Amino acid sequence: MEPESVKRFREYLRIKTVHPKPEYWECADFLVAQAKEIGVEHQIIEPVKGKPIVVLKLAGSDPSLKSILLNSHTDVVPVYEEKWNYPPFGAERVLMDNGEYHIYARGAQDMKVTGSCYLEALREIKASGKQLLRNVYAMFVPDEEIGGEDGMGAFVKTQEFKDMNGGFDIDEGGPSPNTTTYSFSEERTLCWVKFTARGNTGHGSQFIEATAIEKILPVIYKLMEIRDESVAELSKFGEAKALQQGHFTSVNLTKLEGGKQANVVPAEYVATFDIRITPDVDCHEFYTMLENLAKENDVELEYIKRGLVNVITDLPDTDPFMIAFNDACKRQGINRVPMIMPGITDARYIREAGIPAIGINPMFNHKLLAHDHDEHIIESEYLRAIKFYVDMIESMGSVSSS
Ligand SMILES: [Zn+2]
Q1: 4-187+311-397 and 189-306: identical CATH topology
Q2: pLDDT (tens digit, 9 = 90+) per residue, 244-269?
């Protein structure tokens, strides 16, 4: 017998909230219908047209206390359908040889499973008749996969978000390949930077001085050197490399543009980098270094996008929220190991708004398939994760001080 919670999860998976044209309103309709069935209030906020945010509220008995936020994104990344063994938006439930059911769909791991767990946990708590002390809000936001500016980035600036009076946010994590659960309270800071060099031009047969290329090369060399250092340090960790990534600043030269013809010395050359600054270094010092590098080489610098703070949640274990969080983990058999998020998530907007946020996904023994073909989850782990969230939400929602 297929559990009802699995049926609902599969329904959510079938909504094509896939870039570049996500069906956000179909998704909002589904979430509103869920809110009505569960019997909780809901709100649709649309800070950017066509990009609705749906918020469900499990009302607490003391609304003056800071609330607990549960964040998830509704959008998913595109698929290479021909590489899939199951239709990516079919949400097929497949019985495997080991007796486990797998659910195949884009978004099964990243991160509709978490959104579904929030819905199922609210449903269970509401049905039990229990009222928690604090308001709990489950947030379903668009656009995380394309940077989140029009999703969580816009949402945190609204009055509706401020009115939620968030005190702690539970956010995106990833399933574990084993039985250790990795949680994320830090992320690297994103920096997309463009260097433009201008110089003398002329015939390709001449010894022209102060060319654009001459100016841009030292900038490229310096940044490649930082990349090499990170690669060398990281390689010392061998197998554990992936877990340590966040401690190192990554540098990638993503665009190199300029030149018109083989025999013309280019008047302008542009190099664009994707840099992720580790929270172990001060991002402002890093920016100063970049700016000096540009100045020394007579190159113009432009930030396409950059984070302005090292986004860290650093609550002591004695903090009442942390006690509640850790207790719930313990009760649910979760051995939590904190790690720096290698990528970026919407949690950074929430941390920037001054609210502590921890990313977690309690599912064990999964092949990590976010953004990959044949993305799927193990049904029994999904069912276990719902229990985790019920306990977690009840625990966090009952914290009386803080
Ligand atoms: Zn995600």
Answers
A1: no
A2: 888 999 999 999 999 999 999 999 99
**How do residues 307-344 score in pLDDT, each as one tens digit?**
877 778 888 999 999 999 999 999 999 999 998 988 88
Q: Is residue 150 among the annotated active site residues? A: no
pLDDT digits over 177-188, tens only? 999 999 999 889
Of the listed 120, 124, 143, 144, which one is catalytic? 144
CA 199/CA 128 separation, integer angstroms: 72
**172 assigned to a ligand binding site:** yes
Alpha helix positions (H), 315-378: 320-331, 347-352
Residue 160 and residue 45 in contact, taking contact as beta carbons nearer than 8 Å: yes
C-alpha to C-alpha distance for 253 and 248, rounded to whole angstroms = 16
Say whether 268 counts as a known binding-site residue: no
User: In the CATH hierarchy, which fold is given to the domain comprising 189-306?
Assistant: Alpha-Beta Plaits (3.30.70)
Domain locations in the chain as residue ranges: 4-187+311-397, 189-306
Q: What pLDDT is recorded for position 300?
A: 98
Which class is domain 4-187+311-397? alpha beta
Active site residue 75: yes
